[in-house]
Amino acid sequence: MAECYGFGKVILFGEHFVVYGLPAIASAVGDKTIAKIEKSDKYELVDNRPATEGYKVKKKGEIKRSMKLILDFMKIDIEKNPVKITLSGNLFCTSGIGASAAMATSIARAFSDYFNLNLNDEQINRISYEGEKGSAGTPSGIDNTCATFGGLLWFEKNLQGGENKIELLEIKQPIEIVLGNTGLSSVTSEVVADMKKAKEADPEKYDKIFKEYERLVKEARGSLESYDLEKIGKLMDENHRLLKEMNLSCKEAEKIISIAKENGALGAKITGTGRGGYVITLTPGEELQEKMAKAIESAGFMAIKSKIGV
Ligand code: PMV
Asked: SS3 for 50?
């Protein structure tokens, strides 16, 4: 028997931009997906992860594709070596929290343990990336990197296919966040494809937005490193404005963002795919974090308290 985990993540800056080679900043969250692998007489995947209603049905095809990609890449013949895989953990699955990557990483690690493959983190990350192709189509690689390595990361995808740039960012102390769940699941590959189409149809608009983002993310790195919380929040708001201009927000996310603003969040934005999933709100200090979680919950949305830079 083997049991291993992968971290969930939040993107602080740069979802979608990261697909086009621009830098993004993301942080692993403490919540994890756990994969248990045990001997069985037939292959079976039992998904006990907590999830938004409809998530598992919507993701059924993706999960199947990811599993096949992982097994093929690891050259595991599941017919010859039937196992039961049970997924669990406290990572509440919906779009935006890197649930598919957390799953892929946990499974890759569990297979490595189960078959005594002794794979290192780079190898696990590579397998998890393969699994991500089942859900994101052409994933940037940011989710699997966070799921595998943890921490607060600066990430740049190498569009030529070489090594991605991954730098661990150190901050003075972890920062409290609250994630508000819109209750809607979106399909990453569809939203990424949609965004590509829109970008091709209006290059001028998107060039302008991309340039603005490039400036913003550099400032964001500086403000994280100098621990300027007000500035980080302001830049998150600016990042969200750009995402909204690219039609990646939705009514429910906007509602959570206005609640966040009314209750003193320093910044709030969509995190991940968008058009559903989670909103991240920057709420330094346990008091503000608690207040925010309550405010989001009283409006009927689920809220998760977490920290970035742990
Ligand atoms: O929704 P998530 O957590 O899977 O994040 C997707 C992030 C994108 O930038 C939209 C896609 C990618 O591959 O980076």
From this structure: coil
